[in-house]
Glycosyltransferase (Rheinheimera mesophila), 336 residues
Amino acid sequence: MRVLYGVQATGNGHISRARALGKYLQAEGVTVDFLFSGRPADQFFDMQQFGDYQVKTGLSFVTEHGHINYLKTALRAKPLELWRDIRQLDCSAYDLVLTDFEPITAWAARLQNKRSVAFGHQYAFLHQIPQSHASLLSRSIFRFFAPGQQQIGLHWHHFNQPILPPIVDLEPATNTADPHKVLVYLPFEDQQQVIQWLMPLTQYQFYLYGPGLSSGQLGHIQCAAPCVEQFKHDLHHCSAVLSNAGFELVSEALQLQKRILVKALQGQMEQQSNALALTQLQLGQSTETLNTEVIQHWLTSTVQHNKVQYPNVAKVLAQWIRQGACPAGLQQLQLW
C-alpha cells in the first residue's frame, strides 16, 4: 500500500502527529511519501524520519506579539502558487491520500477523485464541541480548507460526538517530574518579553524553547531553539507546562499529567476554543494576559485538575489504514 501524507507545517503539532503516525504506518508495511506546506524549507528541523519529503508554500498566517496580523497574512498569501501546486500534484501512484489539515494534498485528491482521509484537531470543529469566537469564516475554513472524503476529528474529550482521542508522539520513558522545572513554549510571543516575565521567578528552573533563541543559560532560564529530542526530554521531566493553546503539546502534557497554563493566540479561533475546552474539562488553566504575577500565581496554585490517559490512537489508525481505511471499521473503534 502506498500513501501520500500531507502535513500542515505552520506549527509543530501537525508534524509531531506525523512522527507518531508515520512510525506505525511504516511498521504496518505502508509506503508513505510526505508533503509539508505552510513553512519555508529552511525552517524545518529534525526531519530525518520523513525521508525525501516535499515542501510547498501552501497557506499560513502571520503573528505579531501573540496576535494574528490578518493584513500581513493576506498580503503574504500566494493563491496562484497554491492553485498551481494543487493542479500539478499527481496522486495517481497512491492508493490513499492522508491530510492533516494540509490543503494541497486534500484538494489534489478531490480534483483527481482519489480516496482521501482528512484527520486532525481542526476536523473536531465540524461537530458540537466547545467553541469560542466562532464565525461563518472560521466554520468555512474548517470545512473547506483541507477537505477529505472521510474527516476524523481529534480532541481531549468526545463531547458525545464521533471524535477520536489525540495522537501523541511520546516514546516510553520515565516520567519523573521535578517540582521546580517548568517547560515554556510560547512561539507566538516576543521571546525577550517572555524572558522578562520569567526573570523574577528565581525559585524555578525554566526551560524556554522558542524561535530565534540561541542555546544558553540566563541564570535560572535555559534557552534553546525548537528541537525534538531535548524538548521531549524536558517535557517528561518538568512538572508544569506554560504554552500557547496549540492542541498537540497540550495533549502530550495531559498524557504525562503535567500542570498546564495556556495563553491562546488572539484572533485564532482554534486556540481560543482550546483554552475554553481545557478549562471546561478542568484539565488545566488559561489566561488572556501573561505577566510575572499571572505565572507566579499559577505556579503556586493548589487547584487540582482532572487526569486523563489516552490510548495509542496512532497505532490503531495505522492498522485501520493498512486494512483499507473502511468507514465502517472506523466506527467500530472503541477508543474512549
In short: The longest strand covers residues 2-8. The chain has two domains: 2-167+311-331, 181-300. The first helix runs from residue 13 to 27. DSSP finds twelve helices and 15 strands in the chain.
